[in-house]
Fold this protein.
Amino acid sequence: MSAEPHSSAGPKPLVSRTFHRYAVSLAVMTVLLIWWGAATTTKQAGMAFADWPLSLGSVNPPGWLENMVPFLEHSHRLLATVVGIMTLILFAWAYIRRGVQAVEVAALVVWLALTFGLFVAGGAERQDAGRKQMLFLLGSAAGLGPIFWLIWSWRRRRWPLVVRLSALALLLVTAQAILGGVRVTEVSDTFAVIHGCVAQGFFCLIILIGMITSPRWGQKRDRVGDDHIRVARLASTGLVFAIVIQLILGALMRHHHRSGLADTGIVLTNGRLFPGFESEILLLMFAHKYWAVVVFIGGLAFARWLWTRMDLPAGLVRQGILVATLMIAQIALGVFVILTGSPEHKKFWITNFHVLNGLAILAIAFGLSVRCWFAGRREALLEEFVRSRSGARGSLPAAGA
């Protein structure tokens, strides 16, 4: 495919809209996958099948469409496969310019498949504990190869940023698949929590790729004065980290409160303001509730600061206000989750919308932070990639980024 045609209505885009739209579609699929995983956890369907990556030894297990629990778990696995394949295509599209690079990508895929296969074999081993441990150790050792390859390429080969991020996404989605599988075969809540948290990181990475491959990224830069840029960067980054901590606490809660919440107090926990350290479950619930207040206050304060700085771009202000608005909705949803938190009153949709709204808060806050950090430097990122592509082909890139 050729680059986007020049339009008399405006400057020629530095990137292909097709590549950008593909990155956006991957982000949408990732949202669906994370939400589907949340629904699987809400229904306690994560262990519907004891084997992995197949379900009852089949890609089409009998009866999975007739019952909600196997349907959620198996369709979650199918969605994960789609996201994995799309991520591989994303990296190949951004990276391959010559035949030797296609061979390199093929070798990388074979190596990742080998690593994946070692973990599959280790998870399937039920009799010999020593052999299981050996297979997991071999899989972990094999996984270091692609990691070292990425680090070396990142430092020595002068890859453009989009290629670096796409390669990182490919390694991350492979690790995510392995974490999900080990969670099943080892019946581990710890791996379930890590699996859920890594998904949020992968989602943010795809958002970043989608942002910097947008044609608008190189056509309009955010201009933030030197007196405000430091505050905007630190405040937006701090807000993202606070949201991530809250999501981790939420993941820990969701995998410890299986049938319902340990307590349904909105302000008090187990009848006390601070429940003490005797119960890990109650302590997690206390931390999740009151860290939500910290995040809420931080989000509102940052939105107010953006609103009062009249020299900031309107887009930054709008995103800050949107984050604050979604936080208000999240607090309300959290209260409803608590009110319906007992096993006999637990509501599937309220809990899932609470998770989905939290993901939206993370996405918008992360996008806001990216815009703050790259204010004034956006065109340089695109031109770097365009030069690398046009130098190889003699024209603007079809893949873009």
Remarks:
- The first helix runs from residue 17 to 42.
